[in-house]
């Protein structure tokens, strides 16, 4: 009888040992054979500590990339805005320089487009000082005819700048739209008045604005 009991006890112990070995194996491998507790996710979709701990690092890295890209874009846009033609035009921002170029050009046009039969030489000399480049070449070509007319017809021309608007101004270049009133007087006849509109380009030379191109509008 004791022999049967001991045999039965030995079988029970063996069964218990086998159960322990199986439990231990499942704890290592995982009941589904996936490699233990560090699985990708539970059945309800919840991340386990093994993989879930990586998500904050991934998200942080993505945010850094996005912020850097956004910062680069904003810098480029700011640079473009800074370098636009509108912001480089001093006629919109520098009232002192704008007033000066308008004054120099108005003075020059008033002198070179005013003459009398006895003082055409004075007008010609003023043109040499106040005009340059293409403007001086055109003026020299045309003034020979005007000088003869003024002497023959006793013609006097007086020019007044009504308004000079600076449309663009950079360091040494300016573009202006100029409105003139011109009074023609012939000996023995009533004076006549005519309006003129000019597009003018001027250059800064030796501290003064010189007219380099004149176009009638």
C-alpha Rg, in Å? 47 Å
Oligomeric status of the shown chains? Answer: single chain
Put simply, the count of helices is 7
The class by helix and strand makeup works out as alpha+beta
**Low-confidence stretches at least 5 residues in length (pLDDT < 50)?**
1-9, 12-43
Biggest pleated sheet: 4 strands, antiparallel
- Fraction of residues in helix: 40-55%
> How many distinct beta strands?
4
Mean pLDDT: 77
**What is the end-to-end distance?**
134 Å
Q: So what's the overall shape?
A: elongated
Order of helices and strands: HHHHHHHEEEE
Strand order of the largest sheet: 1-2-3-4
The fraction of residues in strands falls at: 15-25%
Structural commentary:
With 217 residues, the chain is of the alpha+beta class. The protein is built from 7 helices and 4 strands; from the N terminus they run αααααααββββ. It has helices at residues 2-29, 49-52, 55-82, 85-88, 95-112, 120-130, 133-153, and strands at 155-169, 173-186, 192-205, 208-216. The chain has a 4-stranded antiparallel β-sheet with strand order 1-2-3-4. Strand 1 and strand 2 form a beta hairpin. Helix 5 runs antiparallel to helix 6 and helix 6 runs antiparallel to helix 7 (133-153). The radius of gyration is 47 Å and the shape is elongated. It starts with a helix and ends with a strand.
Structure keywords:
217 residues; alpha+beta; 4-stranded antiparallel beta sheet; 4 strands; disordered N terminus
